[in-house]
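Example 9 (inverse folding). The structure is encoded as follows.
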């Protein structure tokens, strides 16, 4: 089985030393930068916006995976593409015209992702699953880093893998929230192939080593 894509969440970086933390990810085994955009409306927290995203993009040597936790995300798709997004993920809960929004993301040349909150069942994705490049399953309630992983997520990953098998076998299944070296193998076994990690990476004494452990949990188990 191939290694998962590892996407450290910049939300947990030290913003006063952002350049240093971007360089750490550049020189690590991570694959993408996970960029969390929060508006204080859809989620109870405000993170950062275009200037910071552009600054990361300028220095990043890996693609930016932009996770929009904002209402009316369709208003900002082009702007995030211009700020450097390689992939844009919108929340199912914020998009009454999700099909159209997904098409616009693809027309911009970005990887199109749809995120679902912990209470949103996988089954609502049945009629969009063939159109998207990625589904992000929130394994915490969106808004903050450092929360506890919700165990029901494993069931949802398996359901999503089953739902996508025949219509979109290459679907990226991304897990976001409470991912760490203890649950990474179980997430991969359930069918996840993109793992976001914020506090697990940035609170680690050795962030690059932690990224490598997330990328290669099979080595971890044999230690
Ligand atoms: C939460 C964000 C996550 C967050 C993950 O709303 O979408 O990307 O940064 O942080 P950890 O890995 O600390 O749960
Ligand atoms: Zn996120």
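The amino acid assigned to each position is listed next.
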């Amino acid at each position: 089985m191939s290694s998962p894509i590892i996407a450290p969440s910049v939300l947990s970086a030290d913003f006063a030393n952002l350049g240093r933390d971007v360089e750490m990810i550049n020189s690590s085994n991570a694959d993408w930068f996970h960029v969390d955009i929060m508006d204080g409306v859809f989620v109870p927290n405000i993170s950062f916006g275009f200037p910071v995203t552009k600054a990361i993009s300028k220095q990043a040597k890996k693609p930016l995976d932009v996770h929009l936790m904002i209402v009316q995300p369709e208003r900002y798709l082009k702007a995030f593409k211009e700020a450097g997004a390689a992939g844009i993920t919108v929340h199912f809960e914020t998009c009454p015209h999700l099909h159209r929004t997904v098409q616009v993301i693809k027309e911009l040349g970005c990887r199109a992702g749809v995120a679902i909150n912990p209470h949103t069942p996988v089954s609502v994705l049945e009629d969009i699953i063939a159109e998207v490049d990625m589904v992000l399953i929130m394994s915490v309630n969106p808004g903050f880093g450092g929360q506890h992983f919700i165990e029901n997520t494993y069931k949802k990953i398996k359901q999503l893998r089953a739902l996508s098998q025949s219509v979109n076998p290459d679907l990226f299944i991304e897990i976001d929230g409470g991912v760490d070296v203890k649950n990474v193998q179980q997430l991969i076994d359930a069918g996840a192939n993109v793992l976001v990690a914020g506090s697990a990476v940035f609170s680690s004494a050795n962030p690059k080593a932690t990224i490598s452990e997330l990328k290669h949990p099979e080595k971890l188990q044999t230690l």
